[in-house]
Amino acid sequence: MTPNERAAPEHLSVEQACAVMRQAYQLGWISTRDGNVSVAMTDRRGFLVSGSGLIKHALVPTQFVLVPADGAPRVEQTPRPSGELELHRRLQALFNSQHLTVLHLHPTHTVAAMYAGHRLTELSAGFPEVTRYTRVGPDVPALPATSEELAEACEAAFRPALGAPPHIVGLDRHGVVAVGRTPWEAFEHVERLEHICRIVLAAASRLPKHREPAMRMPANPRQVLTTGRVMMALAILGMLVSTLIAYPLAERFSLGTQIAGHLALPVSAAFLKLGYVVRLAAHHALGNLQAG
To answer: Which residues contact residue 30 at a Cβ distance below 8 angstroms, ignoring those fewer than 6 apart?
Structure first.
């Protein structure tokens, strides 16, 4: 990024982004060339993203790359944009804010908590210092770094079916992605979650050895949500057909069919309840704790 490509209002945000990456390195949340960060342009020309393969604890504003809102970075630009460019592009477009930072780090205890089987939404729910200021979204399953699949899954995690979008989501066996109005605000969301993950893991080390790790939802809770809704729809259809066969239209069917209709009615009701439970569990895994 050349000086004439960086508008004055972005200068402070990019300076803060550099400071955030230095602090993350000092805390051990990234190694020398890990992590990436982007900040939106206040004039909506696009966003600025940290360059690829750079030493993050020595990052400077001139090592950010301008990504136009209506196209890709220039091929000849040096440095090249972060390998997670697609992830930043999707989240910057999703929030479409003049004041947005997208921060991707690898905080040790948060990654360890996911690896140990904890769901970050449930883990953080019991800690008011997190829930009061930071909305934690559903975990993204383990996917290849820099892949489009990871970018798509991350975008989906920031699109809740209900309620406000999260401030941070975990990437299984990888790290976290946080958003904020400034680089330091995004950093604080990472810091809060990392702090309580450290507490939980420290407590777990003192639990009896036979205690099992927390159970996890399937990798894609949105698929589970769809399954629950389909189960409920089919169950309702089954109840409707069974009721018609067993009662108002019974005279049009044989005795065996009527008996089958009577038996199918409670079975359909049971599947309706099961589908509701599956749907509710998926909503909770997505961070929609108010879903009923």
So the answer is: 21, 24, 56, 105, 106
On whether both 148 and 246 belong to a single domain, the answer is no
The predicted pLDDT at position 3 comes to 44
Quick check: 54 and 30 in contact, CB under 8 A?
Answer: no
Q: How far lies 128's CA from each of 56, 62, 125, 132, in Å?
A: 32, 39, 7, 6
| Proportion of the chain in helix, strand, coil states, percent, rounded to 5 | 50, 10, 35
**Domain membership flag for residue 211:** no
Q: What is the CA radius of gyration of the chain?
A: 24
Q: Which range marks the domain in which residue 260 is found?
A: 221-285
Confidence of residue 222 (pLDDT cuts 50, 70, 90): confident
Nearest CA among 28, 33, 26, 20 for reference residue 80: 33
- What is this structure's pTM? 0.70
The residue out of 204, 237, 262 marking a domain boundary is: 204
